[in-house]
């Protein structure tokens, strides 16, 4: 994650974390700002981010949850990242999925080229995060 967000972090500098009470503004996840798009307490959380992910800094755009209900403008892509909790036997399954919506065909082509390069790293980040959450839950339980 540090390799991916490093250029954006260097370009933007350190930012103050946003209050958790402010549900419609970006949240800090690492040094990347996500917006809480939807939440079903105890079941699922959906985070969103918008920008030009294929550029060195990610070209992130500050957005609100309402803006994620509409397609992104041409030249931008929206990324959605969910975390879902489901009961399973004597335990719980935590899963995550990433979806992307592009503003126009040219943006989609740029994103597809970018995704071909980073998809393995993206999968590694998700698996590492899920593993860390599992270990913390087992330690706490």
Structural commentary:
With 141 residues, the chain is of the alpha+beta class. The chain has two helices and five strands, in the order H-E-E-E-E-E-H. The protein has helices spanning 2-12, 105-140, and strands at 26-29, 32-40, 44-51, 77-88, 91-102. A hairpin with a 2-residue loop joins strand 1 (26-29) and strand 2. The protein starts with a helix and ends with a helix. The model is unreliable at 1-30 (pLDDT under 50).
What's the SSE blueprint?
Elements (H helix, E strand, L loop, with lengths): L1 H11 L13 E4 L2 E9 L3 E8 L25 E12 L2 E12 L2 H36 L1
Antiparallel strand pairs: 1-2, 2-3, 3-4, 4-5
Radius of gyration: 16 Å
Strand order of the largest sheet: 1-2-3-4-5
User: What's the mean pLDDT score?
Assistant: 81
Shape: globular
Q: Enumerate the spans where pLDDT stays under 50 for 5 or more consecutive residues.
A: 1-30
Describe the largest sheet: 5 strands, antiparallel
What is the helix fraction of residues, given as a range? 25-40%
Multimerization state: single chain
Residues in β-strands, percent: 25-35%
Number of strands: 5
Alpha-carbon distance between the two ends = 28 Å
Order of helices and strands: HEEEEEH
Class based on secondary structure composition and strand pairing? alpha+beta
Tally the helices. 2
Question: Characteristics of this structure?
Answer:
141 residues; alpha+beta; globular; five-stranded antiparallel β-sheet
Short description:
The protein is of the alpha+beta class and 141 residues long.
């Amino acid at each position: 994650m540090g390799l991916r967000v490093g250029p954006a972090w260097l370009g933007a500098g350190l930012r103050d974390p946003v209050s958790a009470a402010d549900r419609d503004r970006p949240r800090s996840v690492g040094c990347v700002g996500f917006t809480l798009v939807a939440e079903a307490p105890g079941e699922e959380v959906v985070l969103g981010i918008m920008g030009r992910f294929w550029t060195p800094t990610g070209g992130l755009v500050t957005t609100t949850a309402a803006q994620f209900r509409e397609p992104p403008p041409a030249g931008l892509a929206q990324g959605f990242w969910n975390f879902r909790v489901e009961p399973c036997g004597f335990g719980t399954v935590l899963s995550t999925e990433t979806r992307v919506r592009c503003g126009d065909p040219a943006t989609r082509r740029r994103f597809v080229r970018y995704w071909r390069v980073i998809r393995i790293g993206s999968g590694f980040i998700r698996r590492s995060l899920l593993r860390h959450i599992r270990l913390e839950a087992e330690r706490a339980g």
